[in-house]
Structure formats: structure tokens, C-alpha cells
């Protein structure tokens, strides 16, 4: 049996009563004693801190790095300026999504790619096969810690707890800043729909940063359970559940991101639309679960649930589902859950609009 990996904060989580479970090969905190709903609402109203050290980070460098990377990923690097980052995809040759990721342009010839922890090994192998030897590839995952601070008070906390001025960092931009003798990368990004920041720190200094942020009484820790309900309310997909190699970015609603002029791997099939990822709203707390069947009111099955949960901010259940493209614009469906037939109404995404894009 393969042993689980541990982040630098694993001992802290356990000592503070976190429920620890396996996620993507890592032992991760799912929730703390206060519970998922309390953590969710604290993030929506104040600020929460998340251990995201399981993610993978790759560094690329070289005069040909931009050209080569543009052929390996969907991200439009022609318009991506230094100190900005962009969401995109790693595709198979048929246009299916192998992983979703964020590309950071550190300089004209340097990049950082942040990938899902469960996909890091296969992503590394595939990228190495697509990149020429002239591009220097460095897997920095084992020496990079990642902490997410999310919530409407996150900027105020970073200023007070770390003494850093980060208010002029635009959405999907970042800055490398000195803090206590180390180089801290602060990115105005996140996975909750709220104003937030992702902070990259040397692995062995992760605890130092974690405790410095938690010293502010407004900050509370949150686990992956709240992270999942937060991202679902914000209409953000989870790879391996809502995104997979059998579906394209266009089917998932990201056709607008396919603007790269480069002949990237999988480009010919990336715009294929045989199915669509849609949002569904249920009238009460009863939620659908992964793979529950989605039917038309007439009885015909047209899809399946990918993610479903009670949405604490909204007071009712929401879900994401793959349905046949021909039926994706219908207003109403029936979800066949384990013990009930749940009426569901199609909803535009996101279900909840937070503070992520608001001016500071």
C-alpha cells in the first residue's frame, strides 16, 4: 500500500482537531471541529486560511520557453505579460482536458505552471515530452509551499499580519515580495469566488507563514470540505469530477479562453461540443451526488451530476452536470438521487457572485 504524502502543516492540522482524509495521495484536512458550514460562512464574511501544499509547481526557463509552452497548453502567451497569470488547460490530442492549471509569467523567458496535485506526475511527463531540450524544466513542487488566504478581509489581514502592501495587485496578477528574509510570491487568485490571495513560500518556511497569518484573530483555518462547497457556489470545476479527458474546454464553458493562435496540442478538438456542463438549482437542502442521473421531465436520461451539495450561502442545493448539448438550454430537469426524484432548474454560473473581482 502506498503511504500518503504530508504537507509541512500536517502535524498542525492534527493537533488542532482536523479530520484528516486522503486526497490526491495526500493526507489533508477536510474540516476542523467547527464544521464545514461554519468554515464556509467565515470565508464568505471574513477570511479563512487553507493548506494547499499538495499542488504541483513547475518552473520553465529559456529563450524558446514561451513559444514551446504555447504549443503545449491552451494558454494565450502572446497577450500574457510578465507578473500576470492565466487559467488554461493541458489537453490530449483529441481536445479532452487532462488537467486545468494556471500559468504565471515570471519574466519574458520564465514561467511557473501550477497544476493539480493528483495530476502532477502525469502532467510533468507529458510536458517534458512536448517541450524541447532548450527549455529548462524544474519541478519545484517538493520545495514549494502554498497557502491560500480567502475572504473579503484577506487584503487587510495580509497588510496587518505580514506588513506587505498588496492592494495594487490586480486580479490574476502577482508580485514577488521580500518577507522575513525569504522571497514570497503573492498572487491575487483563488478558488472560492471571494477576494483572496495564493501565497507561495519555501516548503520549510510554510509553518512560519501559516502561524503569522493565523496570529490575526480574524483568520480561521478551513479544510477541503469548505473549499469544495465554496468553489461549487462560485461555479468553478474540480478536475477529475467536473472536468476530464473525455470532455473539452468548450463543453465545460471555457470556449472564450481558447484564443491562442499557436498550434497547441489538442487544438483541433478543443472546441467540440457534444455535451455541456451546466448549473442546476434544487429548491431545498436535498442535494444530488456525483453520477446521479439527470432526466427530462418526460423521463429520458440526458446526463449525469458531476458535483452537488447544499450551498450554505444560498440556503438550497446546487449542482453541476454534464448533459447532452441538444438539451443544455432546457429550463427544468429531474435528478434521480438515491432516495428521491429531485426537481432541478437550470441556472447560469456562477451560482454565487462573491468579491473576487471587486476593487480593493
Feature tags:
single chain, about 350 residues, Elongation Factor Tu (Ef-tu), domain 3, alpha+beta, 6-stranded mixed beta sheet, Gyrase A, domain 2
Total number of helices: 8
Helix content: 10-25%
Order of helices and strands: HEEHEEHEEEHEEHEEEHEHHEEEEEE
Q: Which of globular, elongated, flat, extended, rod-shaped describes the shape?
A: globular
- The CATH C-level name of the domain at 10-55 and 142-233 is Alpha Beta
CATH topology grouping of the domain at 10-55 and 142-233: Gyrase A, domain 2
Distance between the termini: 48 Å
Task: Tell me the number of strands.
Answer: 19
> Which regions contain 5 or more consecutive residues with pLDDT less than 50?
none
Question: Could you describe the 3D structure shown?
Answer:
It is a single chain. This protein is α+β, with helices and mostly antiparallel strands and 360 residues long. Among the domains are: 10-55 and 142-233, Probable tRNA modification gtpase trme, domain 1 (Gyrase A, domain 2); 274-347, Aminomethyltransferase beta-barrel domains (Elongation Factor Tu (Ef-tu), domain 3), CATH 2.40.30.110. Helices cover 19% and strands 34% of the residues. It has helices at 10-15, 36-45, 65-72, 120-130, 154-162, 206-214, 224-233, 267-270, and strands at 19-23, 26-31, 47-51, 56-61, 85-91, 97-107, 110-115, 136-139, 144-150, 174-179, 182-187, 196-202, 219-221, 275-281, 293-295, 301-311, 316-324, 332-336, 341-347. The strands form 4 sheets. Strands 10-11-12-9-3-13 form a 6-stranded mixed β-sheet, sandwiched between helices. Strand 15 and strand 16 form a beta hairpin. The longest helix has 11 residues, at 120-130. It is globular, with a radius of gyration of 20 Å.
